[in-house]
Every structure is written in structure tokens, then in C-alpha cells.
User: Fold this.
Amino acid sequence: MDRRKFLGGASATALALGHAPLSALAQSAPAARQRPLLLNRIGPSASRLFIANADGTNERKLVDSGTLDYNASFSPDGQWIVFTSERDGLGNSNLYRCRTDGSAVERLTDGPAVEDAAVFSPDGRKLAFVSTRDTLLANIWVMDLQSRELQNLTAALPAKADSPNGFFRPSWSPDGQWLAFSSDRHTDWKGHHKGAGWEHTQELSIYVIRADGTGLRKVSSRKDYCQGSPKWSADGKRIVFYETLAEYTYWVLRPDLLLKIDAQIVSVDVASGARTEHTSGPGFKISPQYLGNDEIVYRRKGGPEDGLYSTQAGKAPIKLAGLRTPTWSPDGKQVVYEKFTWRGWQQNQALYSWDATREYRYTDVWPAFSKDGWMVLTAKGEDGSVDVMKADGSERRRVYDVTKQSGLDPTLVKRGLAGAFFPVWSPDGEWIVFGVGQWFTQRGKGRAKLMRVKRDGSGLEQLTDDSIFNAGFPSYSADGREVVFRIANEDANSASLGGLAVLDLATRKVRRITSGYDNMPMWSPDGSRIMFNRGVRLPGSIWSNFDLYTVKPDGSDLQRLTSHPASDGHAVWTSDGKQILYNSGQAGYRDEACHYDQTFQPYGQLFVMNADGSGKRQITDNIWEDSTPQYVPPGAR
Assistant:
């Protein structure tokens, strides 16, 4: 079966999103091979599955495909384990099962959609799992393991327009009649830190639905909270889940913030809704599961207390270094889990391609091409320096070394909050302009300036001075005489970045062209327009949505290209100026945010649209964040 055509025709839900499903893109693409797509993906480089006794002894490797294997769970008889694997291409998650000794590995799904978080029914004949097939949104599906027939249980449920509508982490009731799951349906897109953040928080409630897709009922909800990963008690009377503030669904992704927050393990009576809090105090508690009707086991995530815990008095924590998403066997004697590796990805590493005519490949951030086909990028995977190379990654050399030349705080550089960001070529290919300084959450606290250097690393020159507090994200005009850039104010709580400005390279005069919450400007190849990202104020927030705009170089004729309440950004023009590649959160989360590690925005997928904002379509579909895309232009080798 052709995995790129597995989804079939465009569904009503996908069309409502404003784009066709990935299969339609693949079917309508020309037969001729096209230039590769480069993209940056934030996620682990490898993941292995392990199994151990419940007391932590006899830990052993279960499955290691050499890629990513994760989110495993046991069959009711304890003989099989179902799990997610990206062995068919990095970014393409399919379901597999194996014996508890790691043998008899069998593929259960084969398609370009996200297939994840699978669980066996109590009789072992069916699977419930999360999939984005048909709709490009995360829904709960059920598969008959004998016939392989499929049913989408949640796609037809009423949805709030332009709002999150994902369904996650299904769990079967002991009698097999019901499924519990978490969902962010009927919530709003809300940025972290009182709406100011680029990334969105995730508010989840717990629902149940009959196994035939009828009888949807909300069994637990709490305003401004996230409730996730439900599991049933053995008698089917209670459902246990973790509960934390929705705001913390962003904090938990950040190693520097994780230890400052907490989550508790809570259960509800399914019939009455009466709740019981089983834990208290600090620590982020997640992945709860009943062992019988009374004991609850769970993971405490992060820091020296990371490990497996029990609500049963007298049981000591189980320490298994690096484990994630544990699931216990039905008899409680074993636990299966994965361990991530974060060793970094290689430039031009092959990724799964959702387009049958085009290769997808990994790149470090903000790649840009010169007229003779050389690439420049920020080596964010190292220390935020500026490197140039051929399109295939060969002949790589450093033209600006942050460690030796910037004087920036090494701690901020290591955290990705400082460095040399957003390098772009001059039209003649002789110069590279970039920003050097403190970025993102540091932009109102520390300085940044524009620099340029020749392609051989010589002629380093500072373009802006301290009269502009934080200047960054530059882009050359088509004639090479001017540079547009973003200005940030000296105020960590500022409701305005200061807008966009244009620097005349001959006179060094600066003129403002916008005054909004604007960032990442990019001059069009023909010089007629400047594209940029703008924060848009939503009711009750500071800036909780970001959209793409264009404007003429004199600041006139402002045009809005995107308007979805989820954020859009990381946009670049294609080399002919006819299309725009960008990152968007509009397809929503593919999982509960609290299960992610060391990332920022786990839901971003890549899109492409025409230069006027028409013809939007999604071009990646995975559980990780994809960003900073760039087509390799003609002539680049």
C-alpha cells in the first residue's frame, strides 16, 4: 500500500480547516521529482522500549528499531505489547505489537497519518488509539484486530469553530463497553504567561464514550486546569487521571521551569462525579494507573525525585533512570516504558516525506540560500553560531563563532536564549547579515545588534548600535541597499516589540515601517513586499495569537495572510516568490502536552500557501514540532 495515499479523499473536517488532507496533496502533485524540503524538528533523536519487574529489577531492552519507539501498553492477558514506532520514516508514527520478550514484531497500521497511544480492549480483539487520518486532527479510533476494520469515534462530535478539538490517551472500561479519554474540545487557544506567549497552553477534560461512538459524557472538568491520561479501576467504578494548571502545560516542557510546578493524582466516581485527590504537595505527577481497585501507581516527572510511586503506604519509589510514559501489566508485576536519547540530529538526515515527489530532510534552524546555491544557517544545535555549507551539508565552515566572538552569556547560549540568529544572504551572495544578542524571553532584558560578515568569514561589521535596544531577525532588500529588521523594547513586560524598521546600509539611517508586536520580517525576492509575523491581541490577554502579514517597504498596504486563532510563524518565501512556507498550530496537539520533554511547541506542523494567502495546505503530520522550513532552490547541489 502507498502510505502517502492511505488517507483517501478530502473530508469535510479537513476542508473546514482550510486545507486538503496530505493524501490529496500527494495525489495531485506532478510526477517529476521536486527539490527537497528542509525543516527543523524538535524532538528526541532516538527512543528505546524497556521492560522491567514492577520493583525495578531485571530491566531489559524490549524493542530498539534504531529510530523512535514509544507509548507502549500491555494486552489484557499480558502476552503482547502494542507500541508506536517511527521505523517507517522519522516523523511517521505507526502502530506495532510484539511479545513481551520483544519477539514477533508485527505492523498494525501503515499510513502517513499520526497513529499513537494504542490500548487493547479487555477481550484483546480490538485496539483504541489516536489517529489524525482523514481529518488531520487527533481523534479516537477503534480497530478490529482480526478484520482490520476501523471506526472513528470522535470526528463527528460537535466542535467549536476555530478552537482546539483533539482527543487523546484512550482507555477501555473493564467491561469493554466504554472508552475514557482526555480532550481539549470547546476550549480556547490561549498563550502562556497570561496570554503573552507564542506557545499555547492545553486545557483538558475527561470524557467517556460508548465503544460504538454514542453516549459522549464529560465526567470531570475544572476551569483553567488540565486533566489527562485517564485509566479505569478494576471494577469500572472510578477513573483516575493527573491534574495540573493549564498554565503548567507549557512550564512542564521546560527543564528550567519543571521543578517549580506540581500536578496531583485525582480520581472520580464515574456515576456521580465525586472526586478524590490521592496525592498532595510538590512534584509533577503523571501517568497514573490502578492496580486493582485501591492502589494507584504513577510517575513523578523531573529532577532527583523522578521515579515510580504508589499510593499504597510503605512502598518506596522505584528509580529507573530516564524512563517515560510507564504502563503496568494487568497483574501489576511488570512495567513497560521508553527512554529518549537527545544526541542531536545530523544535517540533511532523511525524514519521512508526506509528498511522493519530494524528499524531506532535517536542518538546523533558519536555513537560507545564496544565488549560487550555498546555504547559511544558525547552528543552534551547537552554540548558536553561523555556518555556511553546500546544500548537501558538505564543505561546512563557520563564519561567525558565538563562543569566541560574541561575548554572550554561555548559560543563555546553552539554553538557546542567546546567539547569532536568523542569518540571510545579500542578493549578490557576498554578505551574510544576522542578529547577535539575547532572544525570545530575554528580548526585553538584554541587548541585540545587527551584524554582517563576508561569506569567507572576513569583514565582520556591526550595523546597529546601542541606540536600538534589541535589533534582530534581519533580511536584505532585493537590491541589497537596505535591511529590514525587528526592534524590541527595553521592557520585559512590554506589550509591543517596537515594530519593524529598515536600515539604509549606506547612510545607516533607520526608518520605522510598523509599530505592532511584529517579528521575523522577510523581504520578498522581487523586493515589492515584506512578510512578517504579528502578535494579535485577543480578549483577556496581552498577545495570544500570531498571524502572518505583508506590507510594502514604505509601510503602506498592510495585508493579513492568516487569521486562525492558533499561531502562525517561521515563514519564508519560496525562491520564486510565489509561495510561502510556514509553521502553524492550527491542526492542534497530537498528544497531551504534559508528556513532552525539552521542547516548546509540540503541536506545530508545516504549511504552504500562495503569496496572497490563498491555497493553504498542510505538508507535515507528526507528533513533533516542525519549523523553519526551506525548499532547496534550483541550482543548489
Remarks:
- Helices lie at 12-16, 22-28, 192-195, 248-251, 255-258, 402-405, 410-414.
